[in-house]
Prior knowledge:
The first copy, chain A, is of the alpha/beta class. In chain A, 37% of the residues lie in helices and 11% in strands. The interface between A and B is large, with 43 and 43 residues.
Amino acid sequence: MKDLAIVLVSGGMDSCVTAAIARTQCRLALLHVNYGQRTETRELKAFRDIVAYYHVPENNILISHIDYLRKIGGSSLTDASMDVQDAQLDSKEIPTSYVPFRNTLFLTIAVSWGEVIGAKKVFIGAVEQDSPGYPDCKPAYYEAFNKLINVGTKPTTIIEVETPLISKSKTEIVKMGVSLSAPLHLSWSCYKNMDKACGVCHSCFLRLKAFSEAGVKDPIAYV
Amino acid sequence: MKDLAIVLVSGGMDSCVTAAIARTQCRLALLHVNYGQRTETRELKAFRDIVAYYHVPENNILISHIDYLRKIGGSSLTDASMDVQDAQLDSKEIPTSYVPFRNTLFLTIAVSWGEVIGAKKVFIGAVEQDSPGYPDCKPAYYEAFNKLINVGTKPTTIIEVETPLISKSKTEIVKMGVSLSAPLHLSWSCYKNMDKACGVCHSCFLRLKAFSEAGVKDPIAYV
């Protein structure tokens, strides 16, 4: 039997393609975290649609609700008093959508769960190129996290974090998704809207550009 | 003005003394995590009592509710179907009270909050000696976590985890607490009960032994 892998699935395009990649090597366990992000309802629908598409059994699904990121604020994704910026691709600044230490939370939940269900891998769809300011989207961060797992879990636990998209461009990710029949039509990327994607936030901008460059029509609806 | 430090306060003896130590160097911000542990109601009371004792302002208090550790189980502290073991001090096995990757969750929440409120330190009352099987109570684990903070947060964020009790014995911790006037009478350690401590679980056993060896009467009530 194939090893079990936990895939972090926000419901966005990158995590959708990451699940498709993980599935070529492993049995899937899918994890979704509701941390008070603006478009959570829509993201959760995307997650459930992806779960159904891949026929993931109920025991291999975990949806976790985390309250503190909304309580502490500090990010436009979780703090209603901050505006979501439109795309600013030339900026060297960390975007206001940065959620402090968020990927560490995601990986931590995945590793805890992985210790209990015996997963060997955790897949996360981090991409360095389109989030140059995010410290937790760089290879050095994942190397440090894998060292932490090694010293911080039971001696019998062997879990490794994999980042198959980290050095890919968004355009390459679209192409990989198409070639693996990833359910891109079920994914959701917009940071602002929940019915039709806004097309102008940082996340929409990158997605549309990637589909355009890949020569593929984005199957989701835009305003 | 002194630097701000976040102290992880479960409400137990070790975290109570850790807060007393942190207070000699820093302004206090206190963090409590409800992760579905059996005695949460009692621990939260201890936390609130310690907050009041040190007059910590409302903005410097965070109580976070985390659902996934109870959902995934795998520990006698969070899984109602597992019994809490009595003390087994000679065992080399990891006790059933081990909660998978729990300290990583605590530190992750603290660092996220610390990035927002500008804390410079995170104090955690981990003790290696009385939890020989817990991987996340060893110095190597904290070194790895500090490296993760360094690569995983904003370049302007400088937060360091401190473990002032890691190499102390429980007896030394009682003595330190007394000398710093830590509110040990407000702390709670029992893993089983919420009114009067059981005196026989692993945590009670270690606490009673420590007070006895320190020649101090434990101020809390036992059955």
